[in-house]
TrEMBL record:
PANTHER family: GSK3B-INTERACTING PROTEIN. This is GSKIP protein. Residues 34-134 form the GSKIP domain. The lineage of its organism: Eukaryota, Metazoa, Chordata, Craniata, Vertebrata. InterPro entries: GSKIP, GSKIP_dom, GSKIP_dom_sf. Residues 1-23 are annotated as: Disordered. GO terms for biological process: regulation of canonical Wnt signaling pathway. The gene is Gskip.
Length: 140
């Protein structure tokens, strides 16, 4: 099972599902909507890539969502998000290539770490800044 490193209270309220009667039945059950999971993934790492958004063209379902990402190196990918994890399914936005046999990554961090040295640097620097801030907080 994948867990998002995102507090659900931080998610925007404009998901558009609230009034959709098809989704009301899922409240209180353990069914995860992958679009919400995908939005959480995007919100988590958007600061460290050039562009990232949930695909509006490819179909999202209870068990799959697609995320477009452009790295700081200007490489474009379409990622598939399932319970198995994330993997690259195409080298452009809103595409899937069935011939592509890429490995699943348990987290978006490990996937982006493998694709983008610039992501690794930006993410690492953000982590260092956060640690420095925590250190200062604990000293005051």
């Amino acid at each position: 099972r994948m867990e998002a490193d995102c507090n659900p209270m931080e998610l925007p309220n404009n998901t558009g599902f609230e009034d959709d009667s098809d989704y009301r039945d899922f409240e209180g059950t353990d069914v995860k909507d992958m679009r919400l999971e995908a939005e959480a993934v995007v919100n988590d790492v958007l600061f460290a890539v050039s562009n990232m958004f949930v695909s509006k063209t490819l179909p999202c379902a209870e068990d799959v969502a697609y995320i477009n990402v452009e790295t700081r190196e200007r490489n474009r990918y379409c990622l598939e998000l399932t319970e198995a994890g994330l993997r690259v399914v195409a080298y452009d936005f809103d595409q899937t290539d069935d011939r592509l046999q890429t490995p699943y990554h348990e987290t978006v961090y490990s996937l982006l770490d493998s694709l983008s040295p610039a992501y690794r640097e930006v993410f690492g620097n953000a982590l260092l800044q956060r640690l420095e801030a925590l250190k200062k907080e604990s000293q005051s």
